[in-house]
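How a chain folds remains the central question behind the approach discussed here. This step matters because it turns folding into a mapping between discrete strings. The sequence in question and its structure tokens are set out directly beneath this paragraph.
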Amino acid sequence: MLRRRCAATAAVVSRPAVAKSDDEWRADLTPAQYRVLRRSGTERAFSGEYWNCHDDGTYHCAACDAPLFTSQSKFDSGTGWPSFTEPAVAEAVTMHGDRRMLIRRTEVRCRCCGSHLGHVFPDGSGPTRDRFCINSCSLRLRPATGATGDTGTRGTSGATTGATGAADASGEGSATG
């Protein structure tokens, strides 16, 4: 496996960047995760595991385990997807122009493995007014020390699955997530 350094966050700085073949990604992720993380899909609104989760902790990339968002920056946007005001560390994600839906959007990807997470919109709460609209199946919540709560189930490949275990292709055309 190819390895290079990922300087996304202080917590990840010693972690090598993830470079896998398409077959390796398919083997390591659930079908829903593969469609969202590697093919830039979108899960259906209100179907994911974390859209209504209020547990304390850190949300990590489901593909490479890089820390991405904290529960302190999570808010209820009413959209049906987990929404955050900002990443745990700005360098944890990269943003790219996205015109696939004939509207201008900004795609959010994990810096360490390049996986699609969702989109960021300028209609959020907080000082920046950003709303990071992230697919649940692209995340895995690690509870804060001493916290309890449901943090997802692990598939046979070790990947975390959402509450439905599947994403709906009809969500792909959505202007969110």
